[in-house]
Amino acid sequence: MKIAIGADHRGMEAATKIAERLKKQGHEVIALHVPAGGEACDYPEPAWVVGQMVAKHEAQTAVLVCGTGVGMCMAVNKIPGIRAANVHDEITAEISRGSNDANVICLSADLLGLRLMEQVIDVWLKTPFAGGRHERRLAKIAAIEQGKDPRAA
Prior knowledge:
Layout: E1 2-7, H1 12-24, E2 28-33, H2 44-55, E3 61-66, H3 70-76, E4 84-86, H4 90-98, E5 104-108, H5 114-126, H6 133-145
Parallel strand pairs: 1-2, 1-3, 3-5, 4-5
Helix pairs in contact: 2-3, 4-5
């Protein structure tokens, strides 16, 4: 699977280790957008770069890491076609994929340890979208992206 990975300065170390692990698992990590030399980096910048890769289908999915995961999630969700979830455990990882068909996972470098992040990513990548009634809800999210009332979708 082609996976884009990005981080700000607070998520850089975790993102680097996650990228290495995903490569060892056989995934193609196509972007590691992290600040060089530990320099400060505003989270909207890697969120934009990595989110664009997913939106343009240059990557199938993405992992973003910042201090809390919140800022990355807010920024990347502004890109049309992105369904990012700020995930903190295996349950939210599974639900974000199975019910919401999330295509970007946002993680907290400050609140989650590397081992938990790896477990969460494993669950997230292995969980298929359930479809069914959830497709109707994704259509409503798409309507909102287009500035339309989701009740009409």
